[in-house]
Design goal:
303 residues; alpha+beta; 8-stranded antiparallel beta barrel; 17% helix
Length: 303
Amino acid sequence: MKTKITSFLKAAVLSVLALSTVSLAEEDNGFYEKDHVRGFLSFGADYRLMTDEFASYVNKTAFYEGTRQFAEAGSEEAQTYQADKSISKGYSKFDDYYLGLHVNIGAQYKQFLTWMDINFMPTQVSERPGKTYNSSPVAAADADEDAASSTVMKFPLYDVKWFSYGADWMFGWKLFGEHTFINVIPAAGIGFNLINFHLAADYTVSDGSNSADTRDRYYSTFASTFAAEVEVRLELDPIAIGLYAGYRYIRYNELDVEGVLLADDLNGSRTYDTDNDGDTFCIGLRVTWIFQSDWQKKQHDKL
């Protein structure tokens, strides 16, 4: 996962350097005027509506239920324990929308804009219904009631949580010119995203070859992304306010839990089948501060 992120960032940096080299080489021939490049910084927030597939992926993954291998005190042999009733029924399911937050850092040259959109969100939390849950050995299911009740164990429950963050390298164009009061800016870009889950309890996961116990921590998986948006902007130089709408396409890799892919776990108490879809629609508000170019600063100094 880290390798993929590093590769993306290297590609982005190399592309910027390549473009800069070509631009500088062509500056005297009129390819672009370096003094007219303006930097900008913007902050935005949007309403993110998850597709049905994304909402299903989040809830199926976050509320995954497995079994646990546990050896009682004085016993050398571990037994497989399963919750006496569905753990997830005590939790509130996650909504199919959330608040997206953004910081954009970029540059514009005449009508062309490029920026890095760093996106994140508040952690979504479903509180635990209790501190523990009852679990009995799977082998006790066929035993008499007294024998089964005598082997009930209490295991800890956790708050179920998830959040995501990432970055997109965006490219846009001002349709109505560089300095118009009202402008429309279509944009598109590519990037990466990470989604993080904290499960409800500790389970023993196994794919037949490897076996491990989950822990009280987040588990993450990576995805490459494609994003597209259209912004309607009111520009009062150096401040601009924009209303934008867009779509972000994401397909996550399988979630790796202690070296075992959750999709391959043979100990799940329910079928885990999901498309790993992370697509969202959005509508939001963005405030941008546009810095002066070197040319503007020189003109200002002449006054």
